[in-house]
Specification:
Elements: E1 8-14, E2 18-26, E3 28-30, E4 33-37, E5 55-60, E6 63-74, E7 78-88
Length: 96
């Protein structure tokens, strides 16, 4: 039995720019969005360059999922991102 916490990461792409983040650690992640907790870290929520319209991809046991960032909310200690259009990518998708 593996008791180590699983590292959740996402890749962020900006249309007409390219990759913004590779393997960005997040604290929670599901088909509706993700959250980054900046409590007791050197990064503040304002330092994350995340914008509505960016593309997010992440790996699940079913394969790679892709969605579009629909909103980004920053509080003093957290970044909350909601996504839309979440879809499962083709089984032969390779992220690079």
């Amino acid at each position: 039995m593996n008791l180590e916490p699983k590292l959740l990461t996402v890749d962020i792409f900006r249309p007409e720019y390219g990759r913004r983040y590779s393997s960005l650690p997040v604290d929670s992640l599901d088909r509706r969005g993700f959250m980054i907790d900046c409590t007791d870290t050197y990064m503040s929520p304002e330092r994350y360059d995340l914008c509505p319209g960016d593309i997010v991809r992440w790996f699940t046991e079913d394969g790679y999922l892709q969605a579009t960032l629909s909103s980004v909310e920053r509080t003093e200690t957290h970044v909350y991102v909601t996504v839309q259009g979440t879809k499962l990518l083709s089984p032969d998708f390779f992220p690079y």
